[in-house]
Amino acid sequence: MKKTLVLGASDNPARYSFRATHMLKNHGHEVVPVGIRKGEVAGLPIHTDRPQEKDIDTVTLYVGPQNQPAWYDYILDLKPKRILFNPGTENPELERLAQQRGIQTEEACTLVLLSIGQY
C-alpha cells in the first residue's frame, strides 16, 4: 500500500479531496490529510501544520498552482516517490523542481487511478 499525503484535505463532502481521502483509505492506503482548516475526514484529523512524515510514497495535490509555492519546500522535503497533480493543480514549475530531485510527477486524477486499479 502507498502512504499518501493529501494536500488540500477538507472535511467538506463536496470537495474532491474529501472523496479521495475516503477512497484511498477504503483501498487500504495509509492517508495523511493536510489542509488549512482543522477538521476530520475519513476518521482522520486534518493536519493544519506541516507534519514531518516519513516514507511518503505519494503526495496528491488538491491545492491550486497559485497557492502551491508556499508548500514547495514542504512537499519536496518529504521526498515522496511521486507527486500527483489532480485536474486544476497542474504546475510546470513544481513538476520541474520535483523531477530535478528524482521525484516522479504525474498529471492524473487520484479518484480515476484508484477506480481503474492504476494507483
Automatic annotation (TrEMBL):
InterPro entries: CoA-bd, NAD(P)-bd_dom_sf. It comes from the Bacteria. SUPFAM superfamilies: NAD(P)-binding Rossmann-fold domains. Residues 2-113 form the CoA-binding domain. It holds the Pfam family CoA_binding_2. This is CoA-binding protein. It comes from Hymenobacter ruricola.
